[in-house]
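Progress note, project year one: complex with nicotinamide-adenine-dinucleotide.
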Amino acid sequence: MSKVAVIGAGYVGLTTAACLADLGNDVRVVDVDQHKIAQLQRGKMPFYEPGLAELVERNTKAGRLHFSTSYVDAVPGAEYAIIAVSTPEGEGGEADLSYVEAAASSIADAMDGPLVVVNKSTVPPLTGDMVSRVLQKINSRQPAAVVSNPEFLREGSAIQDFMHPDRVVVGSHDREAAEKVAKLYAPLDAPVLITPNIYTAEMVKYASNAFLATRISFINEIARISERVGADAKLVAEGMGLDKRIGPSFLDAGIGYGGSCLLGHETVLVRGGDAVRLIPLSQVFTEFSAIEDLEVLAWVPETRSVEYLPVRTATVRPYEGEIIEVRTKMGRRVLCTPDHPFATRKGVKLADQLGPGDWVPIATRAPSAAAPITEFNLLDGLTHVNLTRADVIVRPANEVLAGVTPRSLKPALAIGRAHNVLRAGAMRLTELDALGLALDRSTLKTARNGTEVPVRLQADEAFWRIVGLYLAEGHCTRDGSRERMQWSFNHTGEEDLIEEVRSFWARHGVKADVRHNLTATSVVVSSRVLAGFWLGVLNLGRNCNDARVPDSIWAQPLEHKRALLSGYWQGDGSWSLINGGPSVILECGTTSPMLADGLLRLLADVGVVASMRVGRTAKSTRDTYWIRCSGADQVENLLELVPETDRESIVASITKEKKRIAPTGYRREGENTAWVRVVDVKRRPFAGPVYSLEVPGAHTFVTTGSLVTHNCFPKDVAALAAVAEGFDYHPELLHAVMDINRDQRMLVIDKLRACLDELPGCVIGLLGLAFKPNTDDMREAPSVDIAKVLLAAGAEVRAYDPAAMERSKMLLPGVEHVKDAYAVAAGADALVVVTEWNEFRQLDMARLKQLMRRPVIVDGRNIYDPAVMKNLGFTYRGIGRE
Ligand SMILES: NC(=O)c1ccc[n+]([C@@H]2O[C@H](COP(=O)([O-])OP(=O)(O)OC[C@H]3O[C@@H](n4cnc5c(N)ncnc54)[C@H](O)[C@@H]3O)[C@@H](O)[C@H]2O)c1
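Model obtained:
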């Protein structure tokens, strides 16, 4: 048993302390965070880490684990002091070592005998020396040895990683002290590497991290290329991983890590091209590049506000593996990959870290998004029902034809036809177009169908009520070329609704028949023109299974949204007393998931958080989505959803509540946010496309049912880095990996400069232009950057590529494109191998050298043997080798 002081009670410190205590040591933890220590003293964990609470509890009870804010409680008498404090990044991106320094000086103040100071924080090489200096300066009386012992644990599996490490690395200038630290790990039966100096151990951690990041960065790049050539990146990674020299780990993680996604059916509200639409993610992907300034409804965590923000990236990728259904109170569900992040009350969490106890936001009261449509033009739907303007018969307003003579129609109509037109007061729409007559207040019909409809319909409250009633009770049938729209009601009890629909159409000059049959009374309008508008422009769906809220509603004022909701609810909804009262619930059900999504969002827009339950009735083969609104305030807010005659009794019932009962299951916060609790995460296998979306600024977007989810982490390294920046986390290694990529290209220029002294006036030949051999793809080809820099530096650039010449000529007009490698070499001061085409390996090097003005070769792909090249008399420079 050893006496150990652990400095810092974070992920690393607390895990280390609890595990070392569990191995039988006497461990005392110090942290400057009083709140954290007070929590730990009460047995509460400051963060969630599986199994940690039990481990801490067990060892605290056994008297092997203590917590304090005072170094004096922990350091005196200890054999080891393990520094596990934070090392945040400094302003320039470097590690901020001030916490480590402060910890070292507090240790020095408190120590009362020989001590081994162990550095577990992730620090750059040479930090151990700094710690030694601080200890020595503050307390030269007591001998202290500094040992580097980097930690490799991962949050989420910290205990497992600590107890079963792949390796333990310790290093110190003091071998004895290093061995003493290794002894702490002896019970773990793990390989221990003791390095003869402290810098090597420090370097292992940085090098390991950089390497893993490089693998991720590498495989992400492979994935991007794979996508372009139609390869399956997962199989590429699998194929690579089977090579024992490569191994599978972190190749797969690279793809998964960078590709958190949602399933394509999850929806978002997007604004683009002056319209707002509710569309599935799969559609955002296809539209993203086509529509500039595409925006998506987002919820901003800092201000808890809801606004439209631009979409930065939308991607799709094939996925095979586990997906997660996140289920919350109020019935919101989202399907995503396990690594998809969510905005929670306690910050961002990944889907597979979510559990009961986490709260996720629902966005309410979305802002008015675009200029509302005030009037619809029914002609906009013609193509949807395969009509052309020539198929439409138009009856212009009386005053349009008043005073018109057959002769005045002559320019467009034969005299006989002109007589007929004036007699009938109607003509083909194409004739009206040709005559240039006004269309306003005309009526339309088709040659084969007599029902006349107006050209325009006002988007007023009455109109949206009729739309709501259609979503509840309507369908549209086709019979040959006939289209019949109908609203079907109960024979009794819904007479007012029947009259509302009939008289609405009558007011607009549309003949609507009221038909009684065995099961229902229907209001029927037979009009192909109207059906085209109804189905093609409003996109309301033909029947209850494909019904959906029209996109034009999203830009409408609140009273129109309420009118649609009230029409829908009075058609299809009901209200009832909960357990006989006094609480009231409003309920409706639909078999269309798109309609359910739209209704939930409309309700959220009027400030109501409705719950949803999905279930199947005994007779049904489809799921029904039950939407419920409860709570005194919410029900009062929605009184117009119930028939006028019932409103009084509802208010009377609610008034009887002693305390106004609010619905359970969510918590409101301000105007735009309701928090709902996660109840469950369900896992299941999935194979198919998954989609990601990136919204800068808020880093969140509002998805199905108004549930807010965090941005997907796109697989593109640069985008991932940007996401990390958004969290105030600077991904140094990602930047390094990206920088290395970029710098790699410029390395060639540096080497040329070094060999040629100066570039202006030199002739530089590029062997290869394509991004890689056996393709003509020039996207992201290094040749482009290299050529541009050389031209800008005043060099003459000449190039040859077996396949990419045509594309290159367009991209690099300043470059002289020649017929082969020898033509490139003729009179050149240097050659650069840019793409490793096989034919460049087979060149006659002696001939090449003879053709060149100066025999300089910069081999960007390391395809030649340096020794052979030197023997031939070349000045040869490879990459990473000379
Ligand atoms: N979290 C990981 O997965 C992980 C893995 C390996 C290595 N590391 C490295 O370990 C170190 C600690 O990481 P963490 O995630 O545990 O950090 P953390 O922020 O969770 O915990 C650090 C703790 O140190 C405390 N602290 C700061 N200054 C102090 C001082 N002068 N005296 C006493 N306590 C002080 C803070 O209050 C905090 O509780 C970092 O260098 C990190 O890079 C972290």
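Residues 209-258+715-730 form one domain.
Residues 7-13, 30-33, 36, 84-87, 99, 102-103, 106, 121-122, 151, 153-155 surround nicotinamide-adenine-dinucleotide (CB under 6 Å).
No further modelling is planned for this target in the current period.
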